[in-house]
Amino acid sequence: MFGLNPVFIPGPTNIPDRLRNAMNVQTLDHRAPDFVEVFAPVLHDLKKVFRTENGETFIFPSSGTGGWEAAITNTLSPGDRVLIARYGMFSHRWIDMCQRHGLDVQVLECEWGTGAPADRFGEILAADKGHEIRAVLVTHNETATGVLSDVGAVRAAIDAAAHPAMLFVDCVSSLGSMDFRMDAWGVDVAISGSQKGFMLPAGAAVLAVSQKALAAAEDARAHRCYFDFRDMRVANTSGGFPYTPPLNLIYGLRESLDMLFEEGLDNVYARHRRLATGVRKAVDAWGLKLVAKSPDLHSDSVSAIYVPEGFDSNALTDHAYNAYGVSFGIGLGKMAGRAFRIGHLGALTDVMVLSGLATIEMAMKDLDYPIALGAGVAAAQEHFRNTAGDQVRAAA
User: Fold this and answer.
1) Sign of the C-alpha dihedral, residues 57, 59, 64, 69?
2) Domain boundaries, the chain
3) Which end of the chain is more exposed for a tag (fewer CB within 10 A), N or C?
4) How many angstroms from the chain centroid is the CA of residue 69?
């Protein structure tokens, strides 16, 4: 009725009024000097979130899926071999895209609930004496399963094999919510989007690209036009776009970066860890299990939760929406009907998370789940009470 309920899907996320107001601008000339004065600092400040000194940042009018396409079409040629593991719906979709572009895709099948298999990557790369594998692709935060992979371990495996493969990372649902270290992890292309940690609507793919990947773009023979790094670099040099930019999103991104820096990136990550831990405490109190196989794989932006045998997770999320007007993530791919997801990223506080936990508890109780009403909320409350002074609070 009032449109005040927050969403608990893993993106798009809740949009703070401050960002909605920042995007509420009249049409402006994107070739005028005042746009250049806004746009150039946005590209520069994005480097701080990716934690890169050497990479270049790009913004394409697109979702993260367009960012995937930009990564592979700018740096690879049809027939090139890439190495990727399938351990969730989004790694699966990236594999599908690579195959459609005519790449030779070497797929490692992994159990859903596990992460990127750095050790297996290392073995395959060490055996690739001819260096036919041109790139290793990793989904940092697998949104379908709530699994965070160790990108640093993948880089270590590539280096241990003395292999020149590039490293591409999908960090769409981790950037701006969990620590990401492009330079330290040797990432060559990092792909994110506006609708997750940046707390904006979908519509802007945000990338950071290493000098190695930019050099590869000079020799790549894949067809690209709209997502061409070369055209974008030339236009960005003068502070502009090769075509009409998503101007309102860029103004929103400027304000989003200001909000992240005001809170402090380390505080942003600590807030997400605190909120995620509260959700995990609730899951334990319900007697349910996370899809992620072990604590080292737990995502701080989304939790995927198995429902008990004989229950339908999609019926649960439907009921939560129809009865209480609150959205939770449905089960995707192999998780359809088996698990629901609680997104806990972006503009959220402990108070907001408690409202989501209370809502999904009511929905589970309505559907006769074997839980004690209030158990999960109480467990999260205890955690939030005991950790209330551990970080700088985000502005409400």
Assistant:
1) negative
2) 17-262, 264-386
3) N
4) 16
